[in-house]
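Exercise 7. Given the encoded structure of a 250-residue chain, write a plausible sequence.
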């Protein structure tokens, strides 16, 4: 079932065309990761999907009644504000304590309910934002560079948690990544943008595409690093995933 359908989308700001001729669908339960250089239109695509910007051409069609969860890059938060995680979550959604605990467990931070927001690590903070997005039981999660500010191990751990969220909830995930060379192995499809769709397919297919290599180079600096965990979520180390060529999933 198509949750999101984007057809011939163009987005302009003033006289500048940011995106043009973008086509993509997001199906129920799949993970789609969007990569691209700065200014490539990644966030503009997300904004068009949620209705924050008006397409100059084309259209975005959402499944009727689609429930969307949104996780931002970072939230500007006053560190001197005395507010617990539970209070913060209940400010953004009508939820009881039990629902907050369940969402925090799904997000991988089950013991922070009574902690002060100001005392959380960067990774914990982002997972609390993820938990808040899960309170509405979304059919699709949209993550706009949600690992911004995290180091590489922290980003890898967050990606693994997103994989767990998909397994547990069945929701689709569209993740915009600022880590241009990092995509988790659980992604069903990767879409590379540079004002338009340069290439799309499985992570392995995109990593080997000439269009991707032209943007990000070749070898270890340009290749996609695919994280594969061994089902032990107590470890934050990552393992290289051996690339195998698959047919494109367009």
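Solution.
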């Amino acid at each position: 079932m198509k949750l999101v359908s984007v057809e011939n989308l163009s987005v302009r700001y003033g006289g500048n065309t940011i995106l043009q001729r973008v086509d993509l669908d997001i199906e129920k339960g799949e993970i789609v990761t969007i990569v691209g250089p700065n200014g490539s239109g990644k966030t503009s695509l997300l904004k068009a999907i949620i209705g924050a910007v008006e397409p100059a051409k084309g259209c975005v069609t959402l499944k009727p009644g689609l429930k969307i969860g949104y996780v931002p890059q970072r939230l500007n938060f006053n560190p001197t504000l005395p507010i617990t995680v539970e209070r913060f979550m209940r400010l953004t959604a009508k939820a009881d304590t039990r629902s907050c605990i369940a969402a925090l467990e799904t997000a991988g931070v089950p013991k922070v309910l009574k902690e002060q927001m100001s005392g959380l690590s960067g990774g914990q903070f982002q997972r609390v934002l993820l938990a808040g997005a899960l309170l509405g039981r979304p059919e699709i999660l949209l993550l706009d560079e949600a690992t911004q500010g995290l180091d590489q191990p922290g980003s890898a751990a967050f990606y693994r948690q997103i994989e767990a969220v998909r397994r547990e909830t069945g929701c689709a995930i569209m993740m915009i990544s600022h880590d241009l060379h990092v995509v988790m192995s659980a992604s069903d499809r990767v879409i590379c943008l540079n004002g338009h769709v340069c290439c799309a397919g499985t992570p392995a297919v995109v990593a080997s595409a000439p269009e991707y290599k032209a943007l990000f180079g070749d070898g270890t600096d340009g290749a996609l690093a695919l994280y594969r965990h061994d089902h032990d979520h107590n470890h934050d180390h990552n393992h290289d995933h051996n690339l195998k060529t698959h047919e494109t999933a367009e």
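Remark. The domain at 1-67+141-153+172-250 is CATH 3.40.50.300 (Rossmann fold). Students should compare their own answers with the one above.
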